[in-house]
Amino acid sequence: MTVLEEFVNTFSRLPGIGRKTAQRLAYHFLQVEQSVANNFADQIHRLRASTIHCNHCGCYSESEECPFCNDPNRDRTQLCVVAWPQDAANIEASHAYRGLYHVLSGVIAPLDGVGPEDLYLDLLEERIKTENIQEVILATNLSPEGDATALYIQRLLNNYPITISRIASGLPVGSELEYADQQTLSRSLKGRILLSSRGS
Amino acid sequence: MTVLEEFVNTFSRLPGIGRKTAQRLAYHFLQVEQSVANNFADQIHRLRASTIHCNHCGCYSESEECPFCNDPNRDRTQLCVVAWPQDAANIEASHAYRGLYHVLSGVIAPLDGVGPEDLYLDLLEERIKTENIQEVILATNLSPEGDATALYIQRLLNNYPITISRIASGLPVGSELEYADQQTLSRSLKGRILLSSRGS
């Protein structure tokens, strides 16, 4: 196997990158200036060297306390529970949330051998006890594992004097009823939002 | 800008990689073992360090003479002229060609400031003079620049006792007439292949 073939094999294992893209990457790295190619390699090293998990919430950070936990302007009564740090980053990009985060570092998935004890649930409970949190928003994936994890946390936190909510499931913005799957439609109906009520 | 944002900015400039894929890459590199992440960086370095251009034809190679030039079983009377080394690799993957290659390292593109003198045309003419080449297949892109380059080479080599051919232009395999663009249809008709002839 040539070094080029080895490169393509390695890079085509990355998420979102097929063999064709890996080949284009190889040819790109061969065609640019040496320093540009080196910069890509260096960025991988730097990313690993400088990015750590926030001690407190588990989000990615360059210091021991992340920008979310460190920001005095955020709403410290809301706690959004996510499976992975990138989920927090994605929610943040929506600009729809200004509270704190808590990263579980996974979801309960018996088939993959991941149980509740593998997630940062102790830390979550500790935060509920010691911080001034009034609402926990369960923002795990809308998948069987994500739903099961949300249900588990809901039961775990049931006895605390807090509101527990789950992100809404329904039709994505811009989607058409005709092409919606039945489970999504069913959830979209169950979770319908009251606009006005004649009876009240 | 955080290191993570810088990583995403850098990697989203790569061909075939958008911001979303660059983000997924960053999170992937943060989640895998340190040694796995390092391996990707090393592969970029190794690719650059070990891959050179063949002295003779310009294809990518790990030694001064590439596997094509070095292979005694290839047809040394046919020479396929391509713009870039990856074009040769792509033709090779089709298994439809067993001759030699010649890489121009670009095409004539006045708008980008690339003229005939920037391509390996001297070397091409030298090969026609010194090697036993009987057919030159012009396999530059079917684009205005690729066509212009093919035409230029056709004129350049016109006085040599060799056959000059151009790869066929027409409808891609599996395509439908209904959706074909008019230029492709027109070329497909002009380049039609005779199946049987009543008159002959």
3D structure, described in words:
Two copies of one chain form a homodimer. Chain A is of the alpha/beta class and 200 residues long. In chain A, the strands form two sheets. Chain A has a four-stranded parallel beta sheet. The model of chain A has no long low-confidence stretch (mean pLDDT 92). Chain A has eight helices and six strands. Chain A is globular, with a radius of gyration of 22 Å. In chain A, helix 1 (3-11) packs across helix 2. Chain A has helices spanning 3-11, 19-31, 34-50, 67-70, 85-93, 121-130, 144-156, 182-190, and strands spanning 52-53, 60-61, 75-82, 99-103, 135-138, 163-166. Chain A binds chain B through residues 2-4, 6-7, 10-11, 14-17, 20-21, 23-30, 34, 37-48, 50-51, 60, 62, 84-86, 89, and chain B through 2-4, 6-7, 10-11, 14-17, 20-21, 23-30, 34, 37-48, 50-51, 60, 62, 84-86, 89.
The most extensive interface, with participating residues per chain, is:
A-B, 42 and 42 residues
Order of helices and strands of chain A: HHHEEHEHEHEHEH
**Please, what is the oligomeric state?**
homodimer
Share in helix of chain A? 40-55%
Q: How far apart are the first and last residues' alpha carbons of chain A, in Å?
A: 74 Å
Work out the radius of gyration of chain A.
22 Å
Q: Sheet with the most strands of chain A?
A: 4 strands, parallel
Which residues of chain A form runs of ≥5 with pLDDT under 50?
A: none
Query: What does the overall shape of chain A look like?
Result: globular
